[in-house]
Write a structure and sequence with these properties.
Radius of gyration: 19 Å
Structural class: mainly alpha
Number of helices: 17
Oligomer: single chain
Mean pLDDT: 86
Helix content: over 70%
Low-confidence stretches: 153-162
Strand content: under 5%
Number of strands: 0
Largest sheet: none
Shape: globular
Order of helices and strands: HHHHHHHHHHHHHHHHH
């Protein structure tokens, strides 16, 4: 209830992404004061399910055609993010005095839960990795919406315009793809695949949309999903979070700021090369989580399918290549084991 009230208050104050940022800051305030409990895992999953379905409905045949045209640039952006991880892993190791694998998994952009698990398998500090990712997401989720709201570029938003006039999906259809998406997510979760509660419903809804069913999610359901995601991010900002490993927190904050600055430069070049709005390119290449950045794009009309596709390919690259990247960087002496 508190998270929803904070969302409503943020909307009244015209805060960018009110149903995400309002709950995030409201829950963070209570968490720091020690006045709130952890969000149930089912609530986070429900939020991811809603956002996954919302994003999937964007993937009509026309949108898929536009995205396929830019596939090569998405691959380039994914490798750029891996390069950022390698660059800032060295900084984080020296600043925070952590092992090489801890630094790399902590600086990997995306797949926070999977990176913590992979780090532990390599003998790294999983808690430091999780802390670093929480700091990164908190900073990016705060900075990007305000930057997007400040810089409103409406010149080139083709993917947003392709879907903005679709009718709202019917309840029977929504219930059907929701149940199928949840079932598939449960199966993928049992197989320990990353982000199943976001990616599985997104896949189901995308298949539904690509077969000629051009609809969109009701706005109030999207707001509800955003509240749950904002609550999930804000709950980690406890007093113990900041005091247990201050060097890791400080290093992660500085690292995130550096990543944002370099991502902005890369986004500017990308917008010039392929002719998309600068702010869309910024959200597409920012070092944030896929769910949070997709919500940002959706609410601000910045081409959510394109943003989602960029982040999805980056997510897969990070999951599959971080271990090999770490082994290479240690062998070269870039990181100390």
């Amino acid at each position: 209830m508190w998270a929803a009230l904070c969302g409503a208050g943020a909307q009244e104050l015209n805060v960018p992404l009110p149903w995400l940022l309002g709950p995030m800051f409201g829950i963070a305030f209570l968490s720091f004061a020690g006045m709130t409990e952890r969000q149930p895992a089912s609530a986070r999953r429900l939020g991811q399910l809603v956002i996954g379905l919302t994003l999937g409905l964007y993937f009509t045949s026309a949108v898929i055609s536009e995205i396929s045209r830019l596939a090569g640039w998405m691959v380039l952006a994914a490798f750029f993010c891996l390069g950022l991880s390698a660059l800032f892993a060295r900084f984080l190791q020296q600043f925070s005095n952590v092992s090489g694998y801890t630094a790399l998994y902590a600086s990997a952009i995306g797949a926070a839960g999977d990176m913590a698990i992979q780090a532990q398998r390599m003998g790294a500090d999983g808690a430091a990795v999780a802390t670093s990712h929480a700091v990164r997401v908190m900073i990016v989720v705060t900075a990007i919406p305000f930057a997007a709201d400040f810089y409103s570029d409406t010149a080139l938003r083709p993917l947003a315009s392709l879907t903005s006039q679709f009718p709202v999906i019917g309840w029977p259809e929504l219930g059907t793809i929701g149940v199928i998406g949840a079932g598939l997510a449960w199966v993928l979760n049992r197989w320990r695949l990353p982000n199943p509660w976001l990616l599985a419903p997104m896949l189901v809804a995308a298949l539904y949309a690509a077969t000629g069913n051009e609809t969109r999610m009701p706005d109030f359901i999207v707001a509800g999903g955003s509240v749950l995601i904002g609550w999930s991010v804000g709950q980690y900002m406890t007093r113990d979070f900041f005091t247990s490993a201050p060097k890791v927190v400080a290093g992660a904050a500085l690292m995130t700021i550096g990543m944002l600055l370099l991502s902005f430069l890369f986004a500017y070049a990308l917008s010039e090369w392929i002719g998309i709005a600068l702010i869309t390119a910024i959200v597409s290449t920012s070092p944030g989580g896929i769910a949070e950045m997709a919500i940002t794009a959706k609410v601000l009309g910045l081409g959510a399918p394109l943003v989602t596709a960029f982040h999805f390919l980056r997510l897969i690259s990070v999951i599959l290549l971080t271990k090999a990247l770490g082994q290479k960087l240690i062998a070269l002496g870039w990181l100390k084991e």
